[in-house]
């Protein structure tokens, strides 16, 4: 069970965002907020298990969206 390196994680986050255009609406309108989210997502992927990447990003996006609604 290996982790992703920085380049792999960034590529995965970019792909995930492009295949999930319905997620993170509030962050997508502000480039700085989106960049911060991407950086945090990369960190989570690098610290997690590569096979769990989809779950990690889905959960992180859900937490972010829930938090921004409060």
UniProtKB/TrEMBL annotation:
<protein>
    <submittedName>
        <fullName>Uncharacterized protein</fullName>
    </submittedName>
</protein>
